[in-house]
């Protein structure tokens, strides 16, 4: 728990260094969302003029993918900002945040996309099995639901540290970071603690009023703690990067 205490002390000591990347992330995310709405509306009107508005769903998918790409980079900038605040005791300037987010977006996007696809496959297969075999059986449905949830947690745990490794090691490549995440998650079982802590903090985002405390206090403490734990396993991680 020493590293958790260190993360707590670092955030409480200089909170603005940790809050800034969060504010930057929220601001650029909202800005990007409205930009995507503008792009979609403009292109939809263009398609409508030429009588091919039926392509709107393809257009929506492409714009959504672009937004996901940008969000992946912004999330990477958030992690790097907290890393900078915790380990270098410095603040990620606005220009640094935007530059890092855009230049590293592809790396974070690939990792996020792979994690999203894997989760989607698990959920899709589970839903199919439920509809196929458990529509009229509570027992079978419960078994499928519990099994799917446990399997999803295991897979997410194995992949969880991939984006954090990208923030920790600037030269890390997406696939290598996933391999390193899987290996270090298996070899260092203690990493289950920050994983579940992150999940719990994420769930508190759904609670009104508590969500503000979670976003600006608990979340940066948790991320700093995760990065601290990963840094202690750098020798293991380095073998797969």
User: Would you tell me the structural class of the helices and strands?
Assistant: mainly alpha
What general form does the structure show? globular
Low-confidence stretches: none
Largest sheet: none
Rg calculated over all Cα atoms? 20 Å
Structure description:
It is a single chain. This protein has one domain. The protein is built from 11 helices and no strands. It has helices spanning 2-13, 15-49, 56-88, 94-103, 105-133, 138-160, 162-168, 174-187, 192-204, 210-231, 234-238. The longest helix has 35 residues, at 15-49.
Summarize the structure.
It is built from eleven helices and no strands. It is an all-alpha fold and 241 residues long.
